[in-house]
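Final paragraph of the annual report: two paired records, presented back to back.
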Amino acid sequence: MGITTASSTQIPPEQLRPADPKSVRRAALAGLIGTMLENYDFVIYGTASALVFGPLFFPEISPVAALLASFSAYAVGFVARPLGGLFFSHFGEKLGRKWVMVTTLFLMGGATFAIGCIPDYRSIGVLAPILLVLCRALQGFGAGAEQSGGATLLTETAPLGRRGRLSSLVMVGAALGGVLGAGAWVLAQQLPEDALMSWGWRTVFWSSLIVTIAAAIIRAKMAESPVFEELKETVDVEDQAPLKVVATHGWRRVLRVVLMNWGVSTQSYMYQVFLVGYLAAVVGVGTTFIPPVQLAASVAAACAAFITGALSDRFGRRRMALILCGILVISPFIVFPGLNSGSKVVIAAIIVLGYMFAAQGVTGIHMSYLPELFGSRYRYSGVTLGREISAVIGGGIAPLLGSALLTLFLDSWIPIAVYMAITMLVSFLATFTAPETVNRDLTLLTDAEDGEARPVVTA
């Protein structure tokens, strides 16, 4: 493998030096297993919102209203995410990416375990949904810097020509978290109905403790990002105010990332969360059918994340993201008629493809694309703020808004499909105006621009 430069501008030797293989492997595994826990927590919570939280925590209202209330509690986690992102990205720029990734791990895992300990509404009344919302908020607060931290550390650690495929492991981990989450619900649903509703659902949340401990052991051994270590030698990171820096110099790029990720986040959580309730409440598909399909879809999505990340190394981040976003602008108008057909084969195929394209395909590219868009002074803060703000206006309210549109328009799918298409069209246009970033110099303090010098990796 050879390296040349895309222009006559000198590329710093730090960008041309081979990465330490051991550090790369540990960073890759740490990013993978951390986001595995995050998505495991969110998948089991989202599935519980659709299947059990209504009667357990909101039993005195109608089933549709209970579903709406469950998704409202689910949305609280997304509201807390940018707050957690603001808090932890400050320390990620000052103390390093590793510190944040270890700290948020325990916060997420502890909150998930606590959910399994909450008594239901019949035991403690209104305090039950209050505690549920509080734990959900802590989940979101910890998750606010998780994926961005893993993506930033891996992008800054990976060797040239391999950033896309290695950083995509963050989303491979997220997809595998979906596999574990769906698998946990498949096992739980083998229990009799009364056992599932009394203690079975709790074991699903308690099981997160195993993943938390495993992830903590791995993350404690990983190395800090080499780009951050170099930044400490050139910039006084202890005295800088990261959020002030990103607000002053990077707010335009943060806004672009918000728009690039808005439709992606919206469609991702529509497939992962909303469609579970839609299939059960509107199409009439039995709830035992859904988790096994989610399990298969998550396995396929893990493969898709890695493939799209690797393809972005070869064909460019921007080009690959535009192809997938373009497909997802049109797909909602095909998806809902397919779901309403009632054919389990068609439904399974739609969910699998939705997970592959919407849930993990684009985000597999974003894991390297978004960090490369920012300068080194506020990369962690910029990626975190952009992704988490878009998560609130996208994934956070998507299941809630989908349920509201379903109620308002008397079970019509058309307004929901229009909503999904519009958000993705915005992401397509924002990506269309973004620069290409493959192999850019990550030590630069400034944001990416078209035409800047980039090393070109040749076979």
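The closing record of the year follows.
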Amino acid sequence: MTGENNLKSLPLEDLHKAAGARFGGFAGWSMPLTYPLGVMKEHQHTREHAGLFDISHMKLFEVSGDDAAKLLARACPFNPEALAIEQSKYTFFLNDKAGIIDDLIVTRLRLDRYLVVANAGNAETDEQHLRSLAEDMSVEIKPLDRVFLAIQGPHASATLARIGVLTESLKFMTGADRMLGSFISRSGYTGEDGFEIALPEEKAHSFVAELLKDPRVQWIGLAARDSLRLEAGLCLHGQDITPGTNPVEAGLMWAIPKDIRASGSFIGADALRTVIERGAQRKRVGLKPEGRQPVRAGAALFDAEGNPAGEVTSGGFGPSAGHPVAMGYVSTPLPKAGTSLFADVRGTKIPMEISPLPFTPHRYHKG
């Protein structure tokens, strides 16, 4: 459904309006930015209890058939056949220059069936990319229309158990379609333990209503989702990673198995091997501004002598960290924790230092 200003509306928009959400545009969608609780309290509620996020703007694709693994091995730098059933993998679609078209989560549901979760702004590009690679392959690519929810925080598992959704069998980065009659994975974008749940629209309203009967569960908007993921050091595609960014400079090589780096035939493999051999010219780092003023995306960075040093790609205030937090790229000789830089914010020099990531510890349930 498309609303004002040609923005698409979430299937549960009526629930968000009833909850007092303030809306704004994101990736072509009208999204709840905040609720009456406010960004700071929404952020802390997620860290302390359980935050409920509507992420239905993201897209799910089912990839199935005899050549499903072959297609994904061509599109992504990992070996889909090495995944166990119900195992999930963070990965990418790369272009022929090893730039990141999108970052994804792929889950193996059956021997020949995988579920791909793609970012909202890249959904059409991703689908076209997959279909172009699938020519002459025995594979079906099926976009799924689902309400997609995330429940995140230390009480996420307990609040699901209260309504009969038992998650003990799932550990971090696993997913299954044997519960709820749909898909549930133990994953998320906050650094906390949590789940992402895809439901048919006709089941979603009652499911949400049951969840929200628990006072530990509160709706959380996009603004707090951004501060949570930034504190957790997680990249946002379109800002921290783009088609002009490769996994080496982004610090994401941990997602590419060593044997695949060496001999994989995925798109962008040769370009990636060249970058590995040559070394990245810049690196993604955490950045801690001095004082209380956040430094936002787009601010230019300079070294102590005033030489250009890089750029901030994400920035804001970290409610759990208790200070402003940011990420960005700096030239390769610089990325050492404690290195002093400054950001140019509308002509004002804001002192910053390179900081380890994440700013708050990950609390994933690894079993």
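The chain has nine helices and 20 strands. This concludes the annual technical report; the extension proposal builds directly on these records.
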